[in-house]
Design brief:
By secondary structure, this protein is an alpha/beta fold. Helices cover about 45% and strands about 20% of the residues. It has helices at about 15-25, 35-45, 60-70, 90-95, 110-135, 160-175, 180-190, 195-215; strands spanning about 5-10, 30-35, 50-55, 80-85, 100-105, 135, 145, 150-155, 155-160, 180, 220-225, 230, 240. A five-stranded parallel sheet has the order 2-1-3-4-5, sandwiched between helices. Strands 9-8-13 form a three-stranded antiparallel sheet. About 30% of the residues are buried.
């Protein structure tokens, strides 16, 4: 069972029970309220990971719930899905403008519902990491923050030198494309007129070894004939950065 709690606000008790079962089968924990005032009190008390609110609750509408939660600093970051029986574009737009993160129109399928919940939770976790840690989104393979020399690759934490971090960042900017050696040398050492060829080779070899150790296989930086390097990627591969308590040296 997931540690994430989803707060359900739904006055139709049969529908609330069905929604509760769907989410519990998907390994979420749930809390259910059958009216708006009780539901919003539950949100303030529990601080759930996500709120699912019917758009037409007795006592308070789903859009009013969105407004109140967004005004409270303790709940303004909680993602909200509004469930609506109205399929019109205007009603969906009203809910989104009112503070909802997503709108699901009834009736809906269990598979789509769970997929939307998981997708919204992923987006919010990613957004919170970027907001709290100053993380720069480099695409699906790399998240990096200024002056942070630590990475997470396929679930393994890597400590990088400053040069390794900068090289990995540059390679990830154009993942799959060749980055010339001269560009990497200029990035790492500037215009000091020294060759640095051996140092660059050692830097890439060490970085590749760290990536390979994380997955017990080959590294992901390919040496390209003609003088360059390419960071290879598959859609399932992930490289993420996280804040380091202290920066590593170059």
């Amino acid at each position: 069972m997931s540690l994430e709690i989803i707060q359900i606000l739904e006055d139709d008790q049969s529908h609330a029970r069905m929604l509760d079962q769907i989410l519990r089968r998907a390994s979420f924990r749930t809390n259910v309220a059958f009216d708006g005032p009780s539901g919003i009190q539950d949100v303030w008390r529990i601080k759930p990971s996500l709120v699912m609110a019917d758009d037409n609750l007795p006592g308070i509408t789903g859009r009013e719930i969105c407004k109140r939660l967004r005004q409270d600093p303790s709940t303004k970051h909680i993602p909200i899905i509004v469930m609506s029986g109205y399929a019109s574009e205007e009603r969906r737009a009203e809910a989104l403008d009112g503070g909802a993160d997503d709108v699901i129109v009834k009736p809906y399928g269990a598979i789509e519902l769970v997929a939307r919940v998981r997708a919204l939770l992923r987006r919010c976790r990613r957004g919170h990491a970027q907001e709290e840690d100053g993380v720069e989104d480099m695409g699906e393979d790399l998240l990096l923050a200024d002056n942070v020399y630590r990475a997470v690759y396929r679930g393994h934490k890597l400590v990088l030198s400053g040069h390794e971090w900068k090289a990995l960042r540059r390679l990830a900017l154009t993942v799959g494309n060749v980055v010339p050696r001269e560009e990497l040398k200029a990035l790492l050492w500037g215009d000091d007129e020294l060759l640095h060829d051996g140092e660059l080779d050692r830097c890439i070899d060490q970085l590749n070894a760290k990536l390979a150790e994380a997955e017990s296989g080959a590294g992901q930086i390919a040496v390209v004939p003609g003088g360059g390097y390419r960071l290879t990627s598959r859609s399932s591969d992930k490289v993420n950065a996280e804040p380091a308590a202290q920066n590593s040296g170059s």
